[in-house]
Amino acid sequence: MKSAKENSKISISIRAMRSSDLEQIVAMERAIFPDPWPRSAFEDHLNQDGWGGFVAVSDEGVVGYACWMVVSDEGHLTNIAVAKSHRRKSVAQHLLEAILVVTKDKSCEFILLEVRPSNEEAIAFYRKYGFDVLYRRPSYYHNPVEDALVMVKYFD
Ligand SMILES: CC(C)(COP(=O)(O)OP(=O)(O)OC[C@H]1O[C@@H](n2cnc3c(N)ncnc32)[C@H](O)[C@@H]1OP(=O)(O)O)[C@@H](O)C(=O)NCCC(=O)NCCS
Questions:
Q1: pLDDT at 9
Q2: CA–centroid distance, residue 90 to ligand 1 (Å)
Q3: Where are the alpha helices (DSSP H) in the chain?
Q4: Is the CB of 67 under 6 A from ligand 1?
Q5: Is the dihedral of CA 119, 21, 89, 92 positive or negative?
Q6: At the N or C end, where does the chain have fewer CB atoms within 10 A?
Q7: Quick one: which of 60, 124, 66, 123 has its CA closest to 95?
Q8: Is the CB–ligand 1 distance for residue 125 below 6 Å?
Q9: Does domain 13-154 have CATH number 3.40.50.12370?
Q10: Which tens digits make up the pLDDT trace of 29-59?
């Protein structure tokens, strides 16, 4: 259990994602992203070894989620999103911290992610928590087509 910022009036807990969360998560994903993941992508994260997810839960239900996978010694942050109504209350920070713990525990030396260069909010968030741009992957995203910045954070 972790609390969000003290000055916010919400209480958030972080726990492992469950299949019973998927209806809310898929609805949030569709509301937030122009190129949303299908339900099956979240199901994969629940069912595959070395993949997983966390949700941030308030009295209103799921208000944020994040997914991870581990390949060899690489951790991957594959998705993270917070409901618009709950942003800037440290919800993503707590989700990211949970993913850093699990990927470190699985002996990862670093964690990678992809982000649209136009997504300045997410880039600001990732930079705050120690991610740097590694390289640019051309035309990685569709709908709309855009390059991806691959960002990395090395564990000490
Ligand atoms: C990126 C996102 C997950 C951040 O979620 P959040 O819960 O609002 O982030 P936090 O409150 O934990 O932010 C922690 C810090 O990150 C930085 N940050 C977060 N959002 C920011 C923004 N919009 N502009 C500038 N800095 C920001 C700030 O330093 C912030 O600390 P502060 O509020 O004390 O200034 C959220 O904006 C989101 O869901 N965006 C849409 C989905 C998305 O783009 N996901 C990433 C795909 S690659």
A1: 52
A2: 8
A3: 22-32, 39-47, 91-105, 120-128
A4: no
A5: negative
A6: C
A7: 66
A8: yes
A9: no
A10: 999 999 999 999 999 999 999 999 999 999 9
8 band by pLDDT with thresholds 50, 70 and 90: low
Q: Is the peptide bond before 144 cis (omega within 30 degrees of 0)?
A: yes
CB 154 within 8 A of CB 109: yes
pLDDT at 156: 83
Question: What is the model's pTM?
Answer: 0.95
**For ligand 1, atom 24: residue with the closest CA:** 121
Q: Ligand 1 pocket, 45 CB below 6 A? A: no
